[in-house]
């Protein structure tokens, strides 16, 4: 394994993805084999260098998934994960035998607290066990990665002994993990320099790191390791993993891409696939992404402050250091609330094809502020209602006027919706059925909106507690490869979802009307 540099002399940092192994170890994050295969394909599309698809010894389903991923994804290196135990190694070797490129990733504890209370073995016993298993694995796989688990809490004297013995036994990659997320950047980075200096053969191997996020320092520690010569970083999508998770793939990659000049490094990640990969992992694991999560969080590129909104509308670089669209993130930078100013309101209304006079904007602004004091966020459906009141007109292509759902424990859910079209002013009723009330309503609305609109995603968030809690719905639809979002808030979460879906479809209809989207067939699916 060699370290590549490009024409700009930037060192290439290899991205080792452990979403499907360490990420899946997060409580509640387990996946079915077929789901792991889908995510593995997306990771390959994203451009990761190495995929660690699981722990082969853990179950027959896990073994089969690793085997299929190894056979199918020939362009990506596959890492077989194993304890320093023969049965683990045999399973990892067998599961990855069809990979075009593979490595064996072996680990054993290195901190004294782990040796005393988990392994119950002496330092010499652990080193002998590790050497034997590296030699055993070397009989089947040339590339051996060794990880001294909990290295950041181990004594350096023993850590150096262990790494030296691993290199002598045939390890080609040394991964130094901060397993408990205990290290600080200023101490963790220099550790790699000391290892090279104090370990025989330490300058002949590739160095990697695997940092956990218990103190929120996983990315910082990984970057510190890069500054001290590490050329591989182990990450997971959305930072999923044990406890507080791992070093986040998207945060590390974008830190390198945004500040790469100060590091002199780059990765091979195709950043345009970051957002879709993040969403896929979130949906598959049923792990919601925190609103303030860097890069992929809902608020990462959204702004409510009037000062920020005004600056963004004049020049994006005033308040954004990255381009969200370059990562596949929909451009939804303006969130309307009580801190928003006239400029942002006028801009958002214009995106719906509505041009306001100064008098109408003043009237709308007053109505907006009154509503914003009651409702924290002014969603698109509410904004369009306010615009209609200010202009004494109907501005939404489709208006949801009524929703009815019949649910029962022993029958399909049946729904009917009434939708008014601004094109002819007619109100039509649509009916549908589904296994759940939301599915039934989606089937109803789909009949009324432009054909070719695909329902992609629904997020539901509680905005308060207690019996009177209201829910916020965010619906994403896709039309001609472009994503459109709609939001709505209501005490009835079913109604909130329905309004958000109609709002998203209104965005599509307006994009078609204003020439910003291509009409696939008919503009109406009635």
Explain this structure to me?
- It is built from 16 helices and 16 strands.
- The chain has 526 residues and is of the alpha/beta class.
- Helix 1 packs parallel to helix 2 (60-72) and helix 8 packs parallel to helix 9 (249-263).
- The longest helix is centred in the last third of the chain and has 21 residues, at 493-513.
- The protein is elongated.
- Belongs to the alpha-IPM synthase/homocitrate synthase family. LeuA type 1 subfamily.
- It is an enzyme of class 2 (transferase).
CATH architecture label name of the largest domain: Alpha-Beta Barrel
Number of helical segments with 4 or more residues: 16
CATH superfamily assignment of the largest domain?
Answer: Aldolase class I
Strand elements, count = 16
Radius of gyration: 27 Å
Low-confidence stretches: 518-526
Strand content: 15-25%
Report the sheet with the most strands, covering strand number, pairing sense and barrel closure: 8 strands, parallel, barrel
CATH topology of the largest domain: TIM Barrel
- The top level CATH class name of the largest domain: Alpha Beta
Side by side, the strands of the main sheet go: 2-3-4-5-6-7-8-9
Global structural class: alpha/beta
Total discrete domains = 3
How confident is the prediction overall: mean pLDDT? 90
Shape: elongated
Assign a percent range to the helix content: 25-40%
Give the termini separation.
Answer: 59 Å
């Amino acid at each position: 394994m060699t370290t590549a540099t490009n024409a700009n002399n930037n060192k290439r940092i290899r991205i080792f993805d452990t979403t499907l192994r360490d990420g899946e170890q997060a409580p509640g994050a387990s996946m079915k084999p077929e789901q792991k295969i889908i995510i593995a394909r997306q990771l390959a599309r994203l451009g990761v260098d190495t995929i660690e698809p699981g722990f082969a010894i853990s179950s027959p389903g896990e073994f089969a998934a690793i085997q299929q991923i190894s056979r199918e994804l020939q362009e990506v290196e596959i890492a077989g994960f194993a304890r320093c135990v023969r049965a683990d190694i045999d399973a990892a070797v067998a599961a990855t035998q069809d990979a075009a490129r593979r490595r064996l990733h072996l680990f054993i504890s290195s901190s004294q607290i782990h040796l005393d209370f988990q392994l119950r073995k002496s330092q010499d016993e652990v080193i002998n066990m590790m050497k034997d298993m590296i030699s055993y694995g070397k009989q089947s796989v040339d590339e051996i990665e060794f990880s001294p688990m909990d290295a950041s809490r181990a004594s350096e004297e023993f850590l150096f002994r262990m790494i030296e013995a691993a290199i002598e036994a045939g390890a080609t990659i040394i991964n130094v993990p901060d397993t408990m997320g205990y290290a600080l950047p200023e101490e963790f980075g220099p550790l790699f320099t000391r290892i090279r200096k104090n370990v025989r053969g330490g300058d002949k191997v590739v160095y990697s790191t695997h940092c956990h996020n218990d103190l929120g320092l996983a990315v910082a520690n990984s970057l510190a390791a890069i500054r001290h010569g590490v050329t591989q970083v182990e990450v997971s999508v959305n930072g999923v993993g044990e406890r507080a998770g791992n070093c986040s793939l998207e945060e590390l990659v974008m830190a390198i891409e945004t500040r790469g000049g100060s590091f002199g490094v780059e990765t091979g990640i195709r950043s345009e696939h970051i957002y879709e990969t993040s969403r896929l992992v979130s949906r598959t694991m049923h792990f919601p992404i925190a609103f303030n999560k860097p890069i992929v969080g809902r608020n990462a590129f959204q702004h409510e402050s009037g000062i920020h909104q005004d600056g963004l509308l004049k020049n994006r670089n005033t308040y954004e250091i990255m381009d969200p669209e370059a990562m596949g993130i929909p451009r939804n930078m303006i969130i309307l609330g009580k801190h928003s100013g006239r400029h942002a309101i006028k801009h958002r209304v214009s995106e719906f094809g509505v041009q306001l006079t100064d008098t109408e904007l003043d009237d709308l602004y007053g109505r907006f502020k009154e509503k914003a004091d009651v409702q924290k966020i002014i969603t698109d459906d509410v904004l369009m209602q306010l615009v209609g009141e200010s202009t004494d007109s109907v501005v939404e292509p489709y208006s949801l006027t009524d929703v009815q759902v019949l649910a029962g424990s022993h029958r399909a859910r049946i729904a009917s919706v009434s939708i008014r079209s601004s094109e002819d002013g007619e109100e039509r009723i649509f009916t549908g059925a589904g296994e759940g009330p939301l599915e039934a309503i989606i089937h109803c609305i789909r009949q009324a909106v432009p054909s070719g609109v695909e329902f992609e995603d629904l997020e539901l968030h509680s905005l308060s507690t207690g019996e009177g809690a209201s829910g916020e719905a965010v619906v994403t639809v896709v039309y001609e490869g472009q994503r459109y979002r709609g939001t709505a808030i209501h005490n009835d979460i079913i109604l909130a979802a329905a309004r958000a879906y109609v709002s998203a479809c209104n965005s599509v209809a307006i994009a078609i009307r204003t020439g910003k989207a291509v009409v696939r067939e008919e503009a109406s699916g009635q």
